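Please check our next protein.
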Amino acid sequence: MGHACAWGNGNWLKAYLQGTAANSVKAIVNQKDSGGAGTHGQIAGPVENAGCVAAAHWEEFTLSGEVLTEAIVYILNVIGAVMAKTQNYSVAFDSDGATAVASYSEANNYAAPENPWVDDPEATKKDYSIYVNYDDLAPPEEEEEGGLRMTLSLKGHEGFDLKTRGGKARRRVF
């Protein structure tokens, strides 16, 4: 099923977002456990989109063509900036996940996101609407569709959750 060495160069990351007000959001791709268990080095981003609308929508963050390799597990992140303590920005999810997946969350500094990011996994069955697109570097051995689907995991309410409160933002990832 495909080639064994690399998937390809990352084009963009998309997340389905909604907020109580317009907000700025950063997207980051980390390499899971690259610095040891629970320590995840940053391999792409942060890419900032200022003034994301409050209405539910797909938000696209343009990457810089970082190479995504098949043998590596990636963590896709979004971090919302705080505009007021009563505002939040969220990522959509489906709650019908078949099996529990690793999930990460903690308050993080929007201005200077932690790198490497240190956090231990939790488990959730939620399938979050976040994924990355890439260009295939080599022809596949078998026919297959392009694109890499990953999910973001957040504890939440009413189908969305990426809380931003008190100068910090919560982020959870697969």
User: Anything to note?
Assistant: Residues 8-173 form one domain. The first strand starts at residue 8 and ends at 19. Residues 1-5, 147-174 have pLDDT under 50 and may be disordered.
